[in-house]
Fold each of these.
Amino acid sequence: MNNHLCHWSALTILGVTGIAILNAAPVIAETQDFEVLPPTIEISSENADVLTDVQVQATESGLVITFETTAEALPAVTTTTVGDRLIIEIPDVILSLPGENIVEVLQPTAEIESVQISPGENGGGQLIITGLTAPPMVAPRLEGKQLILEVTPDESIAENLELVVTADRTANSYTVSEATTATRTDTPLAEIPQSIQVIPKAILADQGVSSLDDALRNASGVLQNSADARGQRFVVRGFDSASVLWDGFRPTFGFSGNIGYPELANIEQVEVLKGPAAILYGVSEPGGVINLVSEKPLSEPVYEATLELGNRNQVAVGVDLSGPLNEDGNLLYRLNALYRNSDYYRNFNVDLERTFIAPTLTWQIGDRTDLDLFVEYSADQRPYDTGLVAIGDSVADIPFDRNLSQLDDINEATYWRTGYEFEHRFSDNWKVRNGFNYIAYNTIFESSFTLGFDPTTGDLDRSYIQLDQPSSTYAVQTNVVGEFSTGAVDHTVLMGVDYIHRNQLGNKLRGFGPDSYFTQNIFNPVYGVVPQPDFETQPIIRFGDTYINAVGIYLQDQMDIGDRLHILAGLRYDTVSQRVVNPTSLTETTQNDDAFVPRLGVVYRPIEPISLYTSYSQSFAPNSGTNVDGDTLPPEVGEQFEVGVRAEALEGALVANLAYFDIRKNNVATSDPDNIGFSINAGQQRSQGIELDVMGEILPGWKIVANYAYTDARVTANNDGQAGNRLINSPYHSANLWTTYELQTGSLKGLSFGVGVNYVGDRFGDLNNSFSLGDYFLTNAAIAYRQDNWRAALNFRNLFDVEHITGTRNNRFEVYPGEGFTVLGTLAVEF
């Protein structure tokens, strides 16, 4: 990147900061100290206890605020009115809230501007409820183990306003205030010194998203690279094969394993942490990690059924059931289940079919101990699609739906994931968490392997093959989180250890027998001339059995110095052992790598809505290949410097993040110029650029997701003639926009319209930069109607049926076209 871009990025960051400060000025000006008047209502009780699990819900008459409590009698409740504010004090109780120990809900109804719940200055709990033009009224009561506060607006304004319920803010909001992926603690995004985008379920629902690649369009600088039957791979900040995590656990080890096609039916939100994340997650690429956060069981009963119908004969039915299993409410469950079937969007006889089920159980063992148990099962069938081919410097000029193999090529995959998450809170300041995951993934595909290609005639020489690939992964994580102070510094310390063991055993490849070979012409394909052989009669090629063990130990300290300065420092030690056993000779090869990985970041908040941050972080990954002495190469090490600004407007309803990053991956394996057939670790890759992300609600009902990325990712040192070449499927420019508006009043209240666009610039399909993938511009739209307990929607993707290429597998024979025009109708009913 040249100096002009650096100067431009600095000016842009300053400009966005200035704009956000100006926008925030009115909010700051309104902040003042109020004189507390004598109480107007006082309700006493004999006992006081713990208040937890606060819920704020809109009703036709106002709000209901509910606390779980151990009190046996109604606690003392004192109310005071100051201007348009109702101040509720609940003394002599212990108030336990998540995160920063504060809960804030903005614009829950048309008559109530905000609700703020926090500990009182002298202990107990305090609620500040601000009315539109007058303070609301409250009526407390105790029902079983719940303290319920019924809040109603002043009757003088309630009778003149139509109720506009936007308090379902948690369920329907495009913004999230906290995330765990960056720190493994509940940290406000405004205090994280690294770019992180959180894509909540509300966005996925509005866009009709069911695949991870469509979800990730909502984060800048993230692209799908390849999507054959083995699974999806993603490019983040220019680097391929970003790690995909489930609730912080990796389904495979490192970045080479395929992840299949993750199901989103039970996903609460998708979190994308940009830049190296080895400090918490070990071996990974330096571009970033993608974390899928699962839904948890609910304390209130929810029963939802969903039906989807679309073109290409798409049908999907699903259920989401949750609630308590016993009268005490300390045993909760959730069940997500889905069946989906559709034709494939290219010329195959094999349908896309999925069966998915995910039961989860939460046991609240006591006030301080929780245990979550879960199981996920997925069975998939899909065509084994090797995509198109490249001729010359571009993709072959043939129809994008053309099958270059056989019509019945198929892949069948099963995926099991089970485990637990345990948490015990020793006190309000110290807790221990332990989690375990077992993941079994098996894929069997019957397809064809490319042996050669004549671009002049268009003939592809191929052989039928069958590949059986079973694998299993065991992972354990344990960490302790503590909060304490040293002088003026408040600390949140994380100490942890994780262990991963992965087996890939018994891989069998059948094929290449005398009756397995055939030729397919890309310009005039003929299918079935050579029938698929009986694979039981084909020669067997056994791959080596692979055993991987990885242990990581990490320490992290989040330091808050006042309300404005936040420092994040951490260090991790990783050791990785890989052993491959030859199944025929029983000989084995081993590789051992270890590394220390640091991270340091600073956030400064000159005013509350603005966060200025900078950070340095590293990644670590074992290398492949050996040098002339037969020794394995030292591991790859990535390092990133990032600087950015995060701004909030409209009291947090709209957020923006602008970042400049510079990533270098060192020790990349490259050819040894002095010893043919061997490698040295003299290669380097570098990615630098600017990213802008905007998410939130501009006006009631008007929501937006917008992002842009400029990425200059290329090889900077290499002995294979690739120095200066751009990295695979990494465009200079990419941008996405989605906006929707829902009518808030009138007879059509609940009707919404959405429109969006996706732009991806020109890219190269391999590291030799021998062929271009072109650019593309897609248009999407939606119309939906929400009413009481049901929602109906029509979503349109690639509205104008634009032919486009999504990515490659770094070769000229696996070039993957994207989907054409797609329409999906959804009906969701909550019982």
Amino acid sequence: MADTGPIFTTVGGDSATSISADDLLNKPAQASTGDKKLEAEVAAKSLSQTAKGYAMILVRVLLLQAVGIALFSRGFLLSRPVFEDQSTCVDRPIEGAFKGECWHPKAFDRAVFVIVDALRYDFVIPQEDDSDLYYHNSLPYLYDMAKKHPENAFLTKFMADPPTTTLQRLKGLTTGSLPTFIDAGSNFAGSEIEEDNWIAQLTGLGKKVAFMGDDTWQALFGNHFNVSYPYDSLNVWDLHTVDNGVIEHIFPTLDNQYGSWDVAIGHLLGVDHAGHRYGPNHPEMRAKLQQMNQFIQDVVQKIDDKTLLIVMGDHGMDPKGDHGGDTLLELESTLWMYSKKPFFGKPIMDYSERTVSQIDLVPTVSLLLGAPIPFNNLGFPITEAFVGPKKQPNYENLSRVSQLAAGQIHRYMKKFGIDTDAESSFWEMLKKSSLNHAETAQKCQEFAQGILEQFRAKWVQFDIPSIYMGLGVLVFTLATVHSFYSNLVDNGSVKDGNSYTVFLVGSVFAAFGYFVGQFIPSLNSLEPMYVAGLFMAIGLISISLPWVIKHLTLRRPSVNRWDLFAVFLTIIHALSFTSNSFTIWEDRILHYLLVSFGVVMFAASFRLEDIKERTIGAWHGAMFVILTKLASLSTLCREEQGDLCRTTFYSSESSVNSPYTIIGLIIVAFALPQIVKSFYKTTASYVGSATVWIGWGLCASILTVAWYWVLDGFDTYSWKLPSFIDPETLHSAKLAVARMVLGATLVAANYGWYSGSLCVKVDVQRNNQDGKVRAAILGYSNIYGSYYFLLVLNIFAAILIFNKPLAGIILSLLLYQALTLLELIDIHDLKGSFIGPVVLGLLGSSYFFSTGHHATIPAVQWEVGFIPTSTITFPFTHLAILANTLGPVILTTLMGPLLVSWKTSPSQDPERFQGQQITSLLGVVLYHSIISITSMVCAFHLRRHLMLWKIFAPRFMLAGVSLGVVDVVAVIAATASSRVTSYINSIFNKPVN
């Protein structure tokens, strides 16, 4: 008998098995070398083609769902039409206006606008002397002047229209128009305003405008500024650069050192940035408000009697210092108008009650400076600015300006096309009535308010056909995902034909749709890109439909109880979107579902026959529950949860973690590698590259991330810097550390992973008695899972740098809990069940909340966009925010193939094995697809619900973005798992020379 070479023992399971070298390599010893090489080449090519086919399944799903989401969003998130009409001095909205004037005689020659970003109203109103809140009584000057000199200073609550993002507020403050919900998404993409606005009106009259501060103004009005000093506005960690720049340049401007001027605008950002970084109740906020208090006093000293000074905020901030939503604290800002000459009428009510809409500033400023009211304006003049300072109010002047504003609104209404007979009759009656001036002003205001409410309703009309088209594409895609998922489960693999068919058909149909859409009248309402996307979807559906129908009609095996349990968990999560109460408590619902899974697994473990498996199963089931409860301790409350929720993610009322969380992250740096090591040791996989990745790399990565937050602590917690380090050096050091982490994890580590260092080791020993050589192959029984998981660790470490210290600790819990899930799936033999993908999806959704997020705009942690860069840099800033927001979803989707490959030895049928891994990925996509479609259907069904824009619309937007990210990560995971399978197959099935 021929010598078969050394005897190999595979180590890592419950027992060691001795096999020969030829058995290990899955090849008959008798085959010739040439035959084996040819067979290996054919097998490798077949596996490569199959892997491409599997990847193209996910690409097809990605394209279809992208089109569906885009169409639905287009129909649901409408933007208002923009008219380029301009008001002119000669074309007055009413007859009999002031002769020889441009609508109204100007009251001031010059105006200075000081915008203190996020100047919440309660920041300027005095509180009890014993108040211990840092933002109280730190900016008293505005209130004191309005109280002592009401004819010179006027203070009022300044109500913003949501969304409370700076770009949208500036548009409202200059055009007098209302934003729509989707406008919040364009806060980082300002472009020149096309609508009529008071800045354009003033420059059209030959006025000179000087600007300094927030560079958003430069993007919107850059062509209208004679003098401009813009500063980067979105680096929320920088509290001083913009403010110092405004202070440096505004006083020389007022002294005419930069030339003559008529309007000066200074937009300061320190208060807003202090809120974002620390929250309002922080010493830095007090320092900023005190600085603003002194700055405003200095500006007052510089102006003359012919200059109007307006100090205002663009929005407020919530208790954490964020904004973007529609809570009362975010909507309430401040307006203070000052003139050295007596000018303002007595406030019509107390300061705590008087409220002015921000769009009311537009007609007020326009008429005071002698300019026409912008064409798109829906605001109404502020009464106190036109009744005069005398005891007997000048109602004649108020009546005139009220008629001008109402007339312009009526003109806009006719342009918009909603001029009904009732409004026209009322307007004609108003012009011909013999009412006294006060009554006329009141009637005009009522008319304007009624029109404003009509426009609010008009701008929430939906494009129903687009919504139905989007839902139709998404529902078909859901059926496609389900049919692929079921086929792969039943048959192990699928031959998808030519992988490039998807690209060919999609491209041809998209190009055809792009051109045809411009000639079909019924499609004129859709932009060309949407028509192209729709036709691409039709093309992809056409090649998928026969396959889907065939496999949906096949008889399926009976569903086991674990699949039913998975469906039950998915349905409960999906149904939570049918109620606003359930939606706002989604985080708690997810915790209950995960705990339920852990308890069921714990109980099911006692039915296992092997006592060792029973013990291990019960242990992991219990740990799954404990880890869920630990993660649930980290909470971020939303306004609607009220007193039933207490935020623990941030310390007190701030936007920063407790400094103790940095210590916790350092502890995790040493604890997490030991935890991962313990899982690897169960299969003897803690060998080879695992010792480098886990024992050294993972620990070093987390420690480096912790070091970044230590450096950040010198700013965040006001730690004292060493004398030889200045703030600029500190900032550079932080950037260097962040980029070092990203370079090490995304470039070096992934290159090392791709190079293919497996977590196996051959331990060769010679038996002195029989002379036989025995080689123990350590890690053989988990060779796929241990290798693929190293990629997960790379991405985990990269995501970690974009998350705050407590979130880093929580993500470490997620990694631990995911490994626990993999063990439970293996012990209970559930690698082909839907329960694994569903629980992975639940984990991603649950940890989204535990890492300090909610389905609200203010909950987005915008500041992390400046961790890798100093300024907004596409795509790094955007990817940083995405990694912070959806890090748990990215990680759990990436771990989809591990549901099959964990604790699996080299397969003799790699094509079928790869199909099983794609099946698990499709299961994750299927779960997220169900959740996303359900949230969209509920948002559409409840489109007249009072809480639509506050609760349901943000949740659907989160679901849409999450689904897109899941699809992209699934394609990456499929490619990576194919690499793992083919690489390992090439080693353990290569011919022996």
Amino acid sequence: MKPNNYNAKKHNPEKRGRVMRQALLSFSKKFSKQRLKKFSEKCIEVLALSAIVFFSSAAHAVQPQNLGIAKTPLFLGFSVQPNIFFVSDDSGSMDLEILTPAYWRWYHYDPDPIRDGNYTSRPPTETVNGRNPRPVITRFTGGTFQSAMFGLNDTDRGLYGSIYSNDDNVFRNSCSNQGSPWRGRTESCKNSQNHPLDVDWRARSSDLNRVFYNANILYEPWDGPCTPSGTPCANASFISARSNPYSTQNGFGILRNLSTDGDANNGPFIYEVWIDDSGYTGDNIRPRPSPSPRPERGTRFNETGYAASAFGSATDIPDAPNGEVDLWDSHMRLTVSSTSISVSLVAYNPQNTAAGGLNETNLGGVITLNSDSCYKVLGNESSVQAIRDQIIKNPSNAAIDIVATGIPGDPGAAAGPECRTIAETRQNIANWYQYYRRRAYSVKNAIAEVMDAQASFRFGLTVLNNIDPDVTYVDDEGRPIGGKGIFVPLPAIDEDLSQHNERIKQEYFSFVQPPRGTPLRSALTRAGEYYKKGISLSKEDYPSPIIYPCQKNFTILLTDGFWNSDSGFSVGDPDRDTKPNTVADVAYKYYISDLDSTIDNEVALDLPDEIDLLGKTGTTSPEGPTFQHMVTFTVAFGVEGNLVDRDGDGNPDADATGNAWTVPAKNGKWGNPTIGGTADNIDDLWHAAFNSGGVFASASTPREVSDRLIKAIAAFSSRLGSAAAVALNSGTLNANSRLYQARFDSTGWSGNLFSVPIQDGFVDLVPPEGDDSPPECDGFAIGELCNPEWNAALELANRDYTTRKIFTMNTDDFSLAAFAWDTLGSAQQDALRVNPDAPPVAVPVLEPIDR
């Protein structure tokens, strides 16, 4: 509402709007990380009320107490918290224990792939689309593991999604259907002589099987309840590890003694640490022409690096690391029993004879660890690599090198600990098995960690398929598919957030993966509609969770695979890239749609991410706030697309045709995602995030899932907590006009003040008083914001701290006062006089940050 004395001609909003629009648009381009934040009166009322409650509570405290030092910037606690809705993949593949990137199958390297003594140099073949067998000249990209299959019919066509054959596996076991990679379990596909992991060690290495035990990681129980009554999850037992940690699930009572049956072959647990020391050349490849170099077997062996050195010393033939986990790469094998750990360095020297083959050898023999020492070989991969290098120099000293000890350090260090004891290793393995062995387990832990990291945010959660908590889902034959569904709405306005987050953990930890597909498009549509008008389930109606006109709304879509369902789904082509009905189209639809037309448009634009919403605000100020919309963040776990980001700016370097992209286009060439599921479908997730001002994260390990999600939440926090107050020193564009911008970075607790001149005329090196613009405006057009001429952080950094002047307001007479004891008001002195006799308390020192 305009005041009674409002004079439209005098204020000339159209003219002032043009000037400010031009200035602010220029500013948004120059400061790509800048977030311009505005609140409606309703949102300001929320913040003000929070502040009043906070300060009035402090003013009325009468009991002596320690002066509280805030652990987060105070203003962050007063902001309108965003809605963050998780949509997690509940497809059957999330139950699997194997997750691999593209790799060459073992039979490309091994001339005796099923250990039957039939040596062959011929390239492996496969039947494709019913055609005659043809050479296999591509890497395996199925995300699971192909190896030999033993039993009634020994074959090189085994395909596995799991290592262990537990009765709570979602998919029923199959050792005969090579077309169903989800069903195979290596433990069920062995005979008395051979096991699928005997012919290919790589599924027991976290470098290929991304969800397998990784000594770089400290595995801890999920941070939340493992019983309906809320009992916290606890450390697992190495001799009785549970298949599922939640007490009401079938797997809770399925126990495994990892010391006697940890290798899925009636033996102790085994893990392999990969050493990238060998590769392959492009020579000897048949048939020709070949699309790319690849490993060859038998008389065509083309190994390079240590595998070609005939077990020589490090100086004979240099290592040839190629970034690929090759079958003939060396690896440290660790066999973990209840009382000791056996260690051996396994290396290869391929021989072009039937009797030779890969010629696997334990360099230096097998060494046993059995003391309480902190062994380096049980530590991170860097420690293991160093031990391997020593053994290569002199294999006879392997017994000395392998038992080398280190100094115990932080077991949760980012790079992993330098060493571990046997007891620590067993505990870490037990926790991995019980809490992280399956793909879904890692995602459950990651979501719990994210909520812990930002406990004041508003979270909700659902899944792709089974969403109704009051429905038991069944297949076409009436057999149960998993358990009941899961839908935890975003919290009500007066709901306790800590209790709400515990509910999310409780319901998600107890959730059972169904053997279903991956309908990402319809699931994201459901999230958008929930924000827009709410959702109705069988027994409950959930209204839209949008409460305030300035509230931001995010959806995080997590998946381990390509969308491969939603037959008949249609959303059109809103991003106009000529590829309709994609995840990117869904994301864009709810990004450019007003999700609630009944409330004011007061969502602050996140520039430059949401620059395409400029002008779509419903207000007279194109740079102002916009309507309620959904921003989509996507996380791809263990799967890779075709597009790459080598410069680390978060965007693809080139489009799907290989043309360089300085800035991607929403309607550009992102690939051709289809219902069949290809690498283009992963790029579609990237496209979806870009279309909606979000972020795409590709995570290859369980640790990365947590890290990427927490980083995404940090991005939310940055958008909310990077305050940027902007003020002009003049209401109109005059000579020597300045824009002063105060910034606060909540992640580093640092503030700054910038002085930014506005171009108002010709530039002089020494501008006369009251005329022209400073040199920082050279090259800028009239009305544009120029380069900053100074910022307070740099100015203060160049001054001695004793010369700085800090001012505040005296609360007695509301006058300007120096921030010193004698000039403070009585109320301020009383606040600082709390518990004066308490001893000094050490607090972290905040180092100055230059901005």
